[in-house]
Design brief:
With 239 residues, the chain is mainly alpha-helical. It has one domain. The chain contains 8 helices and no strands. It is elongated, with a radius of gyration of 22 Å.
Length: 239
């Protein structure tokens, strides 16, 4: 029984992991130039691996829910969730890069030239990391199937740690850390915009996700509906 519960919990997570996997490549294509620092790549990889690990260890609730998860990723909920989140993420990324470009002089960068930190690749890295964290936080499926984020303590601590790290590098609290990551200091106005836009992007994605879960609940399979009808009729005959 325990094995079935764990398998059921894992299967409920898989569709949302796949959604993340489909959103992530588009983001990485836009910010690929920001990942030429070994430190940057290492930290992104550590956080991503930790998120996947702790999501997969989410325990199912001891009682069955009347609600049902979506049986396939090919449904209106997943499609609209993917498109909505992708739109918000790309808009946030493009807006942030354009805001950073205003503080940079015009320069011609050769495709095979050595990596030099600047405002654009610094902002791209920060935005890319924030989008990674927001994606996992928004797409996490807790109640009524699995533990909530507050109950899944390792995942909660990983999220808090990632948000704290994002805040530290954005606010430039530890210059040595940013130098190791090859992140240049952000102008105060740009830093405030980035923090505000990050919060708004997360809020919009979270609200959109909750609306879609309410508007497109998982449907009960047809054979279960027939089974319930037969059971109800049989009970009526007994009475």
């Amino acid at each position: 029984m325990e094995m079935l519960q764990q398998s059921s919990s894992t299967l409920k997570v898989i569709p949302y992991v796949k959604v993340f996997a489909r959103v992530a490549p588009e983001q990485k294509e836009l910010i690929i130039t920001s990942f030429k620092s070994v430190g940057r790549v290492t930290l992104i990889g550590v956080f991503t691996a930790a998120f996947f690990l702790f999501i997969s260890h989410a325990s199912p609730l001891p009682t069955l829910s009347a609600e049902r998860p979506h049986p396939t990723i090919f449904c209106s909920y997943v499609l609209l969730s993917l498109l909505g989140q992708f739109t918000v993420h790309v808009f946030f990324l493009v807006s942030s890069v354009k805001a950073a470009e205003k503080y940079m002089p015009e320069e011609c960068i050769e495709p095979d030239s050595e990596f030099h930190p600047n405002l654009v690749n610094t902002v791209s890295y920060m935005v890319g990391m924030m989008l990674q964290v927001a994606t996992f936080a928004v797409k996490y499926m807790g109640h009524p199937f699995n533990q909530s984020i507050s109950q899944n303590r390792p995942f909660q601590y990983a999220l808090v740690g990632a948000v704290g790290f994002f805040t530290v590098i954005t606010s430039d609290l530890f210059r040595d850390l940013n130098d190791w990551l090859k992140l240049v200091p952000l102008p105060k106005e740009l830093r405030n915009k980035l923090m505000l836009w990050s919060f708004l992007a997360f809020l919009v994605c979270y609200s959109w996700e909750r609306f879609l879960r309410w508007a497109f609940p998982g449907k009960m399979p047809a054979w279960k509906k027939k089974q319930r009808t037969v059971t109800t009729n049989a009970e009526k005959k007994r009475v």
